[in-house]
Amino acid sequence: MPADYYETLGVGRSATADELKKAYRRLARKYHPDVSSEPDAESRFKDVQKAYEVLKDGQKRAAYDRFGHAGVNGGAGRGPAGGAGFGDVNDIFGDIFGDIFGGGRRRRQQTRRGQDLRYELELDLEEAVQGCNKEIRIPTLGKCTSCDGSGSKSGKLDVCSTCGGQGQVRMQQGIFSVQQTCPTCGGSGRVIKDPCDGCGGSGQVRETRTLQVKIPPGVDEGDRIRLGGEGASGAQGGQAGDLYVDVHVRPHPLFQRDGDDLFCEVPIPITTAALGGQLKVPTLNGSVMLKIPAETQPGKLFRLRGKGVQSVRSRSTGDLLCQVSVETPVNLTREQKAMLREFQNSFEDNSHHNPQSSSWTDRVKSFFDRMGL
Hints:
Blueprint: H1 5-9, H2 17-31, H3 41-55, H4 58-67, H5 89-100, E1 117-123, H6 125-130, E2 132-143, E3 158-159, E4 168-173, E5 176-181, E6 190-191, E7 204-215, E8 224-227, E9 243-249, E10 255-258, E11 261-269, H7 270-275, E12 277-283, E13 286-292, E14 301-304, E15 320-327, H8 334-345, H9 350-353, H10 355-371
């Protein structure tokens, strides 16, 4: 008794048409007598071909499911004069490789999408942090108004005679048959017989477009904004590309940005560092008072929470980091220098007033002792 067709293809009885096709292609490639080295390849291939010829046909499959082999009279897969045929190995491998390399027999016609464009946009830090609207001018390829982008003077496209409108042509290479893009129509399946005078048949004309770009608050260096459909128009009515706006932030005279935080260096007089005080410091939303504790050392970092940048992604807000640098007074008068010497001489115990200097001196002495210097 002949083997069950579903078992021959290795699929279940509820297999879809796609699953049947995949199983057939896999087994046909394995057992075709022209390429297979299996000892029973010819017999196995006949069984596979017969099973697929029945199951791919809806009416035959229904009859087989109901009556078994008797329902299809054993006639599936017969070649001329009732003999079982192998089929063309080129057709089998053409289907397999046609799908891999871009198509299959029912391949959709390709569309000629327009190019994506890039625009380098420079912003001040304030603009990037707070958001703004910027007007930009883009040199691009726009849709020809004379032919409405079709490229044809009459607005009509004719079927390509080379590929018959399929956009693909079959190329024979030995035992393989590979589908390739039609060289005449470029895969569109259509050609222009009466090119538009305004665009020469491309459907595109050079133009400079003015656009308004909305910059969201919090963008940073290297961020990219996509404007869909604002790139170059597609050839012969194809879809337009996109415009990508790359953000660059100019250096700021006061602030440096690190993610959502801002950094600012704040110089203070030596007297303020020693005695403490208050200092007005800038933020991007106005000034605030920064309290400087007495005995503040150079490099001390103060964090002003929530005074940084609101993230464009998480909407959380960073901090403002203020690092103090203690200034040494310059251009002193004779009297001021004398006062400083008197002030220095008032230190009975230098280590008590200058702990960092004393600690450093001790470490240097210990180093020299270890080195025998």
